[in-house]
Amino acid sequence: MRKSKTMKGSLSDFKAKSKVVKKKLKPPRGEERKKIVLEKFRKLGEDIYYKLEAGEFPYLKIPSRSTKNIIYDPKLRQFVLGERFFVRSAKNIRHLRPLTQLVWVAYTANMLCNMDKTSTLRDIYYMAQADNIDFNDQQESDEVITELETVLGVAREEFNIFPEERSAIFGDLTIEYTVRDYKGIKVNLTMHPDGLVIGPTLTRADFIQCEADKVIVIEKGAMFTRFIEEKVHKKFKAILIHTAGQPPRATRRLIRRLNLELNLPVYVFVDGDPWGMHIAQVILSGSARAGHIPELATPDALWAGVYASVTEDEPILILKNGLIRHEKISKVINPILENKDLLNHTDIKALSCSENGEVRLQKVKAVMRHVYDKPIYEIVTKGGYRVKVTGEHSIEIFNKDAYKFECKPARFLKPGDLVASCFKVPNIASINVINLASLILSEDKDLGEKIFVEGPSANDLMALILKKYPKNVIRREYSEVRRRKVKLSYFFKEGLIPDEGFIRLKYSNVNRLPLKIPVTGEFGRLLGYHVAEGNLNPNYCELTFGLNEREYVEDAVKCIREVFGLTPKLYRRPHKLTIIYGGRLLREIFERVFQIGNSAENKQVPFIMFNVNDYVKKEFIKGCFRGDKMINYHTNTRLTLKTVSRKLASDLIILLRQLGCVAYCWEVGDYQIVGVSETGNILDIVHELCNRSLNAKSRLLSIPAELVYNLRHEMRKAVPYGERTKLHKLLFTNGGRGRVGYERLKMAFQLMKESVINEKLRSLKTLVENGVVLLPIVKVKTIDNTKTIVYDVEVGEPHTFTGGLGALILHNSDIVKYKLPSDPLTKVDLKRLEELKRDPRYKDELWQKEIATFQRIKRKSEQEAFSRYGLTFIVSNYLPQRLKELNRR
Hints:
Elements: H1 11-16, H2 18-25, H3 30-53, E1 59-63, E2 70-73, E3 78-81, E4 85-89, H4 93-115, E5 119-120, H5 121-130, H6 138-152, E6 161-162, E7 168-170, E8 173-176, E9 186-188, E10 196-197, H7 200-203, E11 206-210, E12 214-218, H8 221-229, H9 232-235, E13 238-242, H10 249-261, E14 266-269, H11 274-285, E15 302-303, E16 310-311, E17 315-320, E18 323-328, H12 329-338, H13 342-345, E19 348-353, E20 359-372, E21 376-381, E22 386-390, E23 394-399, E24 404-409, E25 418-422, E26 433-435, H14 436-443, E27 451-454, H15 456-468, H16 471-477, E28 486-487, H17 488-493, E29 502-505, E30 513-514, E31 516-518, H18 521-533, E32 534-537, E33 540-546, H19 550-564, E34 569-572, E35 576-581, H20 583-593, H21 614-628, E36 639-643, H22 646-658, E37 662-668, E38 671-677, H23 683-690, E39 702-704, H24 705-709, H25 712-718, H26 724-731, E40 739-741, H27 742-751, H28 759-770, E41 772-783, E42 788-795, E43 800-803, E44 808-811, H29 814-817, E45 823-824, H30 827-838, H31 845-857, E46 859-860, H32 873-887
Parallel strand pairs: 5-6, 12-13, 12-14, 14-15
Antiparallel strand pairs: 1-4, 2-3, 7-10, 7-13, 8-9, 8-11, 16-42, 17-18, 17-19, 19-20, 20-42, 21-22, 21-41, 23-24, 23-44, 25-41, 26-31, 27-28, 27-29, 29-30, 32-33, 33-35, 34-35, 36-38, 37-38, 39-40, 43-44, 45-46
Helix pairs in contact: 3-4, 4-6, 5-6, 18-19, 18-21, 26-27, 30-31
């Protein structure tokens, strides 16, 4: 059994190895193959003959094809037979008939091979009648032929028995026939405008010259014809194969040959339905019924599922190894694509929202990155929240009729559509003490090569290395130990983390830092000061305050001393006060480990702050707003902050949501203005900075009143008669105009009987309980784009994630994203999906994603549906994009 070589990397890398693969995997062809098959027949006949000659009852050991013996091999990525077999013996009278039938089929097949003639399954059935071989029907005849395959270990096509042909092939491939009367004749597969039928002679032909660099397998005949008319074979240098539904075995065998012998990647394009998925999987891993024939599967084929993208600077909210992070999507995905095992060994979850508004963290199962050269759409909602996506990327929109979320591609969005934003975000207080060594290992391991450790942990490691390794290893890998010094990277090599002592750079003893730093209010305020007023010079850290901010200067100096044990230097300038501290080591940690940002444009909240207790979060907010506050003391006084960093504005919105506040944002020139309301949990900060105690209520934390008013009858039925006046005062006095606050809705739902609440009411209640806010789109901006890299992540059910400024809920799927005409899934379709979900071949993330997508939208669509965008759309738009994505998988 030959195992196909797994394709990794780009198409060019794959092609570069073609000579090796061809030499290593090329199966026997022509006369060589024929000799192998005839030899198998000879051995089978001799075995029976010699048993009869010896006076023994002949028997055959036949591998079992029962479901218990058909096994999916994850290494081979296809079905194979197990080790079970049964014996069919002439000694058993009940075995005589099937044994005789099997021997007759073997005799007939051997004769066909010797005469270089072919036959069909139907022919064999009628030939048996002529020889008085009793078959009840053709099904029984076909079953015996299949048994002969298992006995010989070769496909029936090898001994010249074929089914009816219906598949076709077209492309710039020259073949040479090997059958009698046509041997030596060469044909190019572009010679017939409808494609050549994949019959017995073609499947056995030798490949002479190929100008294609890929194979595209197509389910539907109309699409196959369209691809020929649009010259896909030239535009994409492709060989086109039409399967006419589930491909016959001869077609699957030919696909495998093209993949192995010519080293061509195979792309499978099928309908967007469960049966299309099944057809694709049969090509990839074979069918259970043909598990005894491994040469029919092409495991390296790539399936083009029905599955868009976010620009690289958009942040997404994730939980990585137990810590909350609000990272740019590029920073999350790039390391995974560079190290494909990272996703399997790292627990990464994304904040997700179901169609009913239930929020939870779901595991990231797959990621995608590709180049995009079309306009980018920026969706801006009430409150100033926004996200930049491709036109095909789907946003979760609230359906006012169904009271559920549904997907809508960005280019079809319009002002007034209701977008969802997660106001209730996870709040974890897991970091109380920071071990700088552990943090360096997780965030920037290479920095450990520059840093030296002093103290008890360093002494212990030095003793361990001297005892464990010979001098030549120490000289080569631990050279600093000979000088009684220990690099931090030495701990990482040994799988250890130092927890006692100090760290410093090689030639600096002054600005050394303690390994462990308590997470205190001073720590939070210092990072807040640095985000607002800090600067990272090449050799030190710097804070700048106004001359009238002497109080803040004194507090910052105190924080530096208490947190890092350093003595800062204070300089008075003509118009400012400057604090310099920390040296190059702390500067590197601020930039590369805390990731605080090294310029005003890329400042951000250190991810540590999302994982500390609320007191430290508040102190960070205090330090940050002290530095960059912007207060209007005359009218509409609010706690606000001004920054040129879009990422910082986005981070502050998430951090304030963790504290139960509502932050909104608007643009003024190059600046992002972040305003805060619902400030009950940070009133002391508001009082200090605004010179008054105010707790402005947010108009964002509400829902469009029309959604509530439309359900007034259902709500009244759910409320006891005596409470209906109270309900009316809470919700209906405005007659469905404006918005209704979540506090009022919470009180209203407390009045209702749980057993009477219907599905639509329950959806509203779920939104309120989960803090999911519906915000109208105020504008959709188109940003002209030449070329940019865009990203996408896929999580478990319900396949949504939050992204952009304000944690908006995003989604993706081809049926939805291209708005294809579709039909509802039938009961049979849904049953088939459940079967696929349990099938071991569909355990991969992409398959599971597609199954879940079909189960969620309960729709299916055909390839021909792309014609709604014009006859050439699938070739000029869809196909190029999908091939790029598949080649990056």
